[in-house]
Structures are given as structure tokens and as C-alpha cells.
Amino acid sequence: MLGVSFGKNFYSVNVGGPALFLTLSKDLKIGVGALPSLYSLDGKLGARLGVSPRIDYKNLVLIAPFFHQDAAKNWIRSVGFGYKFHRKTN
């Protein structure tokens, strides 16, 4: 999965990591996952692991990643979307 998320003075590019899902139908899953991310916070770049609830519908993903900010001891919230790329099998 490749995704983007946005928050207050915050932007990130996320890739899908490990996740735990509850499958509701063939096309719909809900769950929680880890998102390795590159981000920009107040114009400063960095890398961080986010934790996110997610809703997957076919190849589209709705995410709401949270990122812990060590220095300020608070959490950065964001909302975004992603796309899952699948390898075709024969």
C-alpha cells in the first residue's frame, strides 16, 4: 500500500506495513496497522512509524495515522488515503 496523509502543518507519505484485519466481505476489511512513513512537520523532514486504523475497500484504503513526537511527548494526528498494489497471479 502506498498512501498520503495530512494534518495540521503535517504531511506524510506512507507505505503499508503489518496489519490485523477483520474481513466483512470479499471487498471490505477494517483493521489496524503500522505505517512506515516519511513526513514533513513544520517544514522539517523525518521518518517515523505511524499506527493507524484503516478501512480497505477493494484497492482503496482510508487511513488515520497517529505519530508519536518524542521531544514534545504528544501525538500528531492525520487523515489520508492509499492504494494497494497487487501482483497478478496466473
Give a structural overview.
By secondary structure, the chain is mainly β. It contains no helices and nine strands. The protein has strands at 2-7, 10-15, 19-23, 28-41, 44-57, 60-63, 66-69, 74-77, 79-83.
The ordered H/E elements are EEEEEEEEE
Uncertain ranges: none
Structural class based on helices, strands and sheet pairing: mainly beta
Rounded to the nearest angstrom, the radius of gyration is 14 Å
Beta-strand percentage?
A: over 45%
Shape by Cα distribution: elongated
- In total, the number of strands is 9
Number of helices: 0
Can you summarize the main beta sheet?
6 strands, antiparallel, barrel
Q: Please give the share of residues in helix.
A: under 10%
Q: Kindly state the mean pLDDT as a whole number? A: 92
Strand order of the largest sheet: 1-2-4-5-6-9
How far apart the termini lie comes to: 21 Å
In short:
The chain is an all-beta fold and 90 residues long. It has no helices and nine strands.
Please name the defining characteristics of this protein.
90 residues, two-stranded antiparallel ribbon, single chain, 6-stranded antiparallel β-barrel, mainly beta
